[in-house]
């Protein structure tokens, strides 16, 4: 029907492990595996699971609603839940205790929300276990700053402040997620057919 507007809730369950999906841990240390989720319409009896290398279940939990903390259904004895869902973020992070070289691999945080017609989403972290951490040598930087004087120091400070401001702006923009989408029956998609092949290419992930 021409002119018909369809309004639909975008069931935007989204799971994230943060800016980078790689973690390096020192052998025999404890390592945090971060994971948060967002949902536009809230959640009820939400289930989350952590897997090692896609198949091995290492943590299984359930969250009744926003007002309650998660309850543990099952977990590997070396895995500890450190998240919270009653605070600002829906944090379902875990800590892997006494990391061994055999723990290196892929960790998947999976979430299923019955309130969003059982919408599911997951995010993945790649863990590397090392014998010792490589320290960055900042001695040369300190010598250069000391010799050239305060000008470079001020420049570095300015660049750091700029990065922090840009990061805050990005975070603010990321937080403004629209949950209502509108599509119109009047859209003339034929005009875009000629260039549609080029448009279909997804931008490469950073």
From TrEMBL:
Q: Which residues form a coiled coil?
A: none
Q: Which compartments is it annotated to reside in?
A: Membrane
Q: How does it sit in the membrane?
A: Single-pass type I membrane protein
Record-level Gene Ontology MF annotations: sodium channel regulator activity; transmembrane transporter binding
Do the record's keywords include Hydrolase? no
Q: What is one process in the GO biological process aspect for this record?
A: regulation of ventricular cardiac muscle cell membrane repolarization
Keywords of the record, alphabetical order, are: Disulfide bond, Glycoprotein, Immunoglobulin domain, Membrane, Signal, Transmembrane, Transmembrane helix
Polar residues: bias regions: 181-191
State the name under which the record lists this protein.
SCN4B protein
């Amino acid at each position: 029907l021409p002119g018909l507007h369809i309004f639909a809730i975008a069931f935007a369950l989204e799971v994230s492990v943060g800016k980078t999906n790689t973690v390096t841990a020192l052998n025999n240390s404890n390592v945090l595996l971060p994971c948060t989720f967002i949902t536009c319409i809230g959640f009820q009896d939400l289930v989350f699971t952590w897997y090692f290398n896609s198949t091995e279940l290492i943590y299984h939990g359930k969250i009744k609603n926003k007002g309650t903390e998660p309850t543990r259904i099952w977990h590997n004895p070396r895995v500890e839940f450190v998240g919270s869902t009653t605070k600002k973020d829906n944090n379902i992070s875990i800590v892997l205790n006494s990391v061994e070289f055999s723990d290196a691999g892929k960790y998947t945080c999976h979430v299923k929300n019955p309130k969003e017609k059982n919408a599911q989403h997951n995010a993945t972290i790649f863990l590397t276990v090392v014998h010792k951490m490589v320290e960055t040598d900042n001695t040369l930087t300190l010598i250069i700053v000391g010799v050239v004087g305060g000008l470079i120091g001020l420049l570095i400070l300015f660049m750091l402040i700029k990065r922090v401001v840009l990061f805050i702006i990005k975070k603010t923009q990321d937080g403004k997620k629209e949950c209502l989408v509108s599509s119109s029956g009047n859209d003339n998609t034929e005009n875009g057919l000629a260039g549609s092949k080029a448009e279909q290419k997804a931008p490469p992930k950073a």
